[in-house]
Amino acid sequence: MKKNILFILLAVFCYTLCFANQEKELFDDGVLLFKQDRYQEAIDKFSGLIEIAPGNPDAYKNRGVCYMKLEKYDPAIADFEKAKELFPELKGLYSNLGVAWYYKKEYEKAVKNYDIEIEMAPDNYIAHFNRALCLTELRRDKDALDSLSRTLSLKPDFYWALCYKGDLLARSGDIAKAVESYETALQKDHDNDYAKDKLASLKEKNKTDQIPEPRNNPPVIQASTNTGLSLQSGAFISRPNADKMKTKLIESGIDAGILIVKDSKGRDWYLVRSGSYASLDEAKKAVVVLKEKTGLEPVIRPAGNW
């Protein structure tokens, strides 16, 4: 086979030299357009390259990434699968498939591709992190924490891995370890408010949980006149962060607002709330809908109060 290929190359040397130059030009142009965020134009270049070099796996892979940027996941997956058919060991290919299947909400398929990527490149900390995100969607939080531990063993200063670890620990009820994870994240990035807000929220909640129930007449709580339950998608000390969350909900078709309350230290908290539900069952159903639309994990709270 190698002799046949060599013979063909020698026989058409002049022709293939021009052909190779054209391939390189199309490839380089596609990469440049991609870097300029001109994804459709980049797709056109890679499509032109595929026409003259249908056996080029990188052309399919790169075109697939462009489709991903345009949120066209089906053609992206088709291109990645073609690249896999041509060159199964292509670097980063299975991570790309993992991302595509994640956005398609096919989390099992995403995990399978990340497993292959990790087998090929065990030190790829991004693959471990993305795998954790998929496992969480499958409610496999323990496995997700294991993936995050591997991520952080490879990249100890990875801010978002530390934050996500804190989120999962908090959800499991391990508040002390969650606080520790958020505090470590703060040490890595003082300017990012995510860990700061989460940490403050956890500490305030812990303080509230420790307040004993009154034995005699309970104090009158000054709050809104709203009754029932609402969904809380975030609690922030920073108003701009609360506004961002509110905007995200509204853009997803959720009617959201911001409830401003003061904690025991007199600080203003901005609670992003949505809905008003007469029963816990109604609120739980709304949680499922909100998660499907936004990917968020809201908590159920008394309307108008902490």
Short description:
The chain has 306 residues and is an alpha+beta fold.
What does this structure look like?
With 306 residues, the chain is an alpha+beta fold. The protein starts with a helix and ends with a strand. A 4-stranded antiparallel sheet has the order 2-3-1-4. Mean pLDDT is 82; it is low at 1-19 and 210-227. It has 14 helices and 4 strands. 65% of the residues lie in helices and 9% in strands.
Helix content bin? 55-70%
Specify the structural class: alpha+beta
CATH class of the largest domain: Mainly Alpha
Radius of gyration: 26 Å
* DSSP helical segment count: 14
Q: What spatial order of strands do you see in the largest sheet?
A: 2-3-1-4
Q: Secondary-structure map with pairings?
A:
Blueprint: H1 2-11, H2 13-35, H3 39-52, H4 57-69, H5 73-86, H6 93-103, H7 107-120, H8 125-137, H9 141-154, H10 159-172, H11 175-188, H12 193-209, E1 229-236, H13 239-251, E2 256-262, E3 268-277, H14 280-294, E4 299-302
Antiparallel strand pairs: 1-3, 1-4, 2-3
Helix pairs in contact: 2-3, 3-4, 4-5, 5-6, 6-7, 6-8, 7-8, 8-9, 9-10, 10-11, 11-12
